[in-house]
């Protein structure tokens, strides 16, 4: 793989992410070290926390609570051997936020103090400010060093290759170590001459007999003859009954369904490209596999033939998964399955799904991914947000301390160690666009309350709702279609209690694209569309055949598709060669 490092400026986008990889905790010449769990660490003597293999960031931000057995104790904080801060610790827990520039891949955080001091920390979280995508270093606030992947073939370790070496197969253009069990010729029979030369436009049938039904893989090598600049739109379609057809573009090295593109011996005064396909199939005892071919170049169609064909009944891929608690992951470290009692969320394995997600098949699916008409207007998901962006302006300011706190993977407002949100109220005006419904969700904790009248209030367009301390989770959907919404909220606590909010989300259910008024998410739910939409039939309230509606108007369906819902979701193919070879109907 060819990596090119370029030095130039890319606009900085601030993005803080919590580190979820497991921290390593080690005492430093210390036998009096107690770790009650990952949440609380107690020690009489120095120790360090280690994180390894972090890439592409410019700043660290630590959040933790700390206390000591003595008053006014100074704790020396070092990071990778460099003095970063002196912590002044009291006998009660105090919350610390420490931020500084740093970009080493391995992080060693040392807490140095004498053995007569018992130092406790809890809820330690480390955040990094990430660099822009594809950026290796960004200490200046811009991308100082960008990595561009110039490999347009296959990647094998640090090389760019035409074909993966023996014992490897290509998966998404990456060579993966694989063990295959090839079926011998005595275990199958092919009753066709696989070496016949065909013109593009002609077909070939292969009749393959096995002694059993099984799921396996077919490796097939084609020699294709033509001029690459003239035959770039030539296609080979491999079809088997009761299976989705597979397409190979022999003169376009896009490595889709293919293992290699190589030059071979010229014939017919035409260039030769040898292309290898590797396809998963469900085989029966008797199988008919048809190779269809097509070219838009009707004057000189070019030729093709099958050079070799192999079948396998077993495949084992060897991935080295580095994601914490992941059971199975792909070559590029994308987790597909977590260990027992864990859920997959944003390529991490978590114990509990966030409130704005749905548990589905061992995964946490975001509501707006499961329900496409949903759009989040407000989402409380980071301690680096601002009160103004979540709750809006203060309308009744009692000068109370209201801060963000991050604990056990959740962001809280009003949950800081010294927070005392009792009477302050907020107001926020929202421009919602075209929608038919809204939904407000949040968790509420009214702590240390001494009165049954204590409550949290929120008002939507003048209507007020009270939430008392016996309620902990609010999920309030409401029919609403006005563009502007006024939202007020506040805490009404009599004495020493306080309000704490978490998992706070405000979302809208949107109308279909370019709809001005609707009662639901579908095009059929739209009561009025924008004027002058090109290719739109206002009587039938939909785009003309061959087009679909998105936010920019009526967009043409993919090649060969007659009726589509989106560009990649074709409902009906055309009854012509384009429909036969280019169109894949959505099933």
UniProtKB/TrEMBL annotation:
<feature type="signal peptide">
    <location>
        <begin position="1"/>
        <end position="15"/>
    </location>
</feature>
<keyword id="KW-0732">Signal</keyword>
<dbReference type="InterPro" id="IPR006212">
    <property type="entry name" value="Furin_repeat"/>
</dbReference>
<protein>
    <recommendedName>
        <fullName>Insulin-like growth factor binding protein, N-terminal</fullName>
    </recommendedName>
</protein>
